[in-house]
Design a protein that fits this description.
Strand content: under 5%
Shape: flat
Distance between the termini: 58 Å
Strand order of the largest sheet: 2-1-3
CATH class of the largest domain: Mainly Alpha
Structural class: mainly alpha
Radius of gyration: 28 Å
CATH superfamily of the largest domain: MetI-like
Number of helices: 14
Mean pLDDT: 82
Helix content: 55-70%
Number of strands: 3
């Protein structure tokens, strides 16, 4: 009888221990210890799953061997920066330097991000504050491109941008297609093609970035009280002052989130530049990373490929750290009502 009581008591102690409230709150919903243990194990599993490919790539980038490791090595056996030096000196066989590739990627991603942000916040403010005819129809039309895969829009964009080009017709005559053209039977020499340029690719990327940016910012601007703008107008502020001095400062967190999300996609964009650009001088870092792959796995310089992948990923991490406060504030804005 005493043995049964001791066993029951011990089980009750274990049960009480596992159901101990670990939330630190006297009232409200409790968080027992067994749930916390399960959550911690789940978090560790997710962390390991996320960190595995990152550690594998970093380990390969720090190796002096160009061959792929025969086993899974998550921690480097040697610390060598030969691959990084080779990538920075001459990434591929193309006659283009790393600085040129970095400049192209930076101009394309930051330029597209800022331009799309400026256009989107103006359009979002108009949709949020003004009442005009076909407002709902236009909002639906802005949303339609989000329903289509981005690569599906590449063909019409290719044909559209390819039609804008400067051609030297000879004898000092320059034609600008499609407005003017050379004389009949004269082909002319191509001077500039909007499609085969960073500027043209930027226009195509802006067209793809605007729908999401407009919808994302419009939802946030709806949460800004109109009374603040009305009070500013009563004090004598004109519409431009209200927009630039009242609305934009309040929307900075969401502007940072929109720019960062767009920057990730623009920085890593591969399909459009690969389809549109043909000159190595216009190549981006993502295109160069693809050019480092060969026909067979054994022909790929894996340490340089991994080093290039780490270098391509670094700017995204740096931008996130720089905008972390605004990004967190923008992502959590509107989560609490009242």
């Amino acid at each position: 009888m005493s043995t049964y009581k001791e066993t029951t008591k011990s089980k009750n102690l274990i049960v009480r221990f596992l159901n101990m409230n670990t939330s630190g709150e006297v009232g409200g919903r409790e968080f027992p210890l067994w749930k916390q243990i399960l959550m911690q194990l789940l978090a560790l599993f997710i962390t390991a799953e996320v960190m595995f490919p990152i550690m594998y790539v970093i380990t390969m980038s720090l190796s002096s061997k160009t061959t792929r490791p025969s086993s899974l090595e998550l921690f480097p056996k040697e610390i060598s920066f030969v691959a990084y030096q080779q990538v920075l000196d001459h990434p591929t066989g193309n006659p283009v330097t790393f600085i040129e590739l970095l400049r192209n990627s930076f101009l394309l991603s930051v330029g597209v991000g800022l331009t799309a942000l400026l256009i989107a916040v103006s359009a979002a403010y108009a949709f949020s504050r003004f009442k005009f005819k076909l407002r709902q129809v236009l909002m639906v039309l802005v949303f339609v491109p989000l329903l289509m895969p981005a690569i599906g829009l590449s063909t019409p964009l290719y044909l559209l941008l390819n039609s804008f080009r400067f051609v030297d017709c000879g004898q000092g005559i320059t034609a600008f297609y499609p407005i003017t053209s050379c004389a009949a039977g004269v082909t002319g020499k191509l001077i500039f093609n909007l499609r085969d340029s960073l500027f043209g690719v930027g226009i195509a990327m802006i067209a793809g970035a605007l729908p999401f940016a407009v919808w994302n910012l419009k939802g946030y601007l709806d949460t800004i009280p109109k009374e603040l703008e009305e009070a500013a107008m009563i004090d004598g502020a004109d519409p431009n002052q209200v927009f630039f001095q009242i609305v934009l400062p309040l929307a900075v967190p969401q502007l940072a989130v929109t720019f960062f999300l767009g920057f990730i996609g623009h920085w890593q964009e591969f399909a459009l530049p690969w389809l549109f650009l043909s000159q190595p001088k216009d190549y981006t870092l993502s295109m160069t990373l693809y050019n480092m792959t060969g026909q067979y796995a054994n022909s790929i310089p894996w340490n340089r490929f991994a080093a290039m992948a780490v270098i391509v990923a670094l700017p995204v991490a740096i931008i996130y750290v720089a905008l972390q406060k605004q990004i967190v504030s923008g992502l959590t804005s509107g989560a609490v009502i009242g």
